[in-house]
Amino acid sequence: MRSSKKVAVVTGASQGIGAGIVRQFLARSYRVVACSRTITPAGQPNLVEVAGDISQAEIAGRVITTAMERFGRIDTVINNAGAFLPKPFTEYTESDFSNLVRVNLGGFFHVSQMAIAEMLRQGSGHIVNITSSLLAEQPVKGVPAALTAITKGGLNAVTRSLAIEYADKGIRVNAVAPGAIRTPMHATDAHAFLATLHPMGRIGEIQEVVDAVLYLDDAAFVTGEVLHVDGGANAGRW
Fold first, then answer.
1. CATH number of the domain where residue 19 is located
2. How far is CA 50 from CA 32, 64, 65, 121, in A?
3. How far apart are CA 65 and CA 162, in angstroms?
């Protein structure tokens, strides 16, 4: 049965930015389907957890099927699952390449394709891709990460492509491109260095990325936007 409450799907939802997004959507009275490889049930009535690797088509299918069977609709998909592997370009292995493409692009592709098929049937929907500012658009000499840039930059490009493809179908597609954010991904002793990568002289907070996601979800006349939450890094050299 189709619910009148909006439904969000969030990947990479067990910690950091993903967990923050889940909390805020629940606070907005959304129903949420959260996916991560290590996620565990929290026992909340409006939250359903799906454990598994979202880069696998069968897991993506389970996430979308769960949303439709439990709640009858999908209003927003937040593609937050991703991997970061800094390494000199010539030292990347075939395994590194396959893993980054599988997680950063495959994790987006399968769940988005299935979700958009449902959104087309209901005549509305919103996709938000969590990409990267520092790696995809403002490479840093001291942080070589070309394969991460290829995959995250690909998400920025496909955000604009899908926004145009579905603009007249009631489906919006946007992205949030964070700088370095205070999450479990970054060791505490690296924060001082990471702060130097932003003109504002600090790293970002999870809530600042969440606020950007919520803004885009509310902004009905915004599509194809890559919203930078990076302390000014995308604006240029400093």
1. 3.40.50.720
2. 11, 10, 11, 24
3. 22
Quote the tokens at residue 162.
């899908």
Report the pLDDT averaged over residues 101-108. 95
What number of other Cβ atoms are within 10 A of residue 78's Cβ? 29
> Which domain range does residue 157 map to?
7-235
Q: According to the model, what pLDDT value does residue 22 have?
A: 98
**Does residue 191 lie in a domain region?**
yes
Supply the pLDDT for residue 43.
83
Give the residue among 184, 159, 149 at the shortest CA–CA distance from 79.
Answer: 159
What residues are paired with 176 via a beta bridge?
Answer: 130, 227
Q: Is residue 2 part of a domain?
A: no
Query: What is the 8-class DSSP label of residue 46?
Result: T
- Number of folded domains in the chain? 1
pTM, whole model, 2 decimals? 0.95
Q: CA dist 137 to 89, 151, 213, Å?
A: 17, 12, 19
For residue 56 the two structure tokens come to 């696998």
- Quote the radius of gyration of the chain (alpha carbons, Å): 17
Alpha helices in the chain (DSSP H): 16-27, 57-71, 94-100, 107-122, 146-166, 191-195, 206-218
Question: Cα separation of 164 and 167, whole Å?
Answer: 5
Q: Contact 124/167 with Cβ under 8 angstroms?
A: no
Asked whether residue 196 is assigned to any structural domain, the reply reads yes
Token pair for 238 = 């400093």
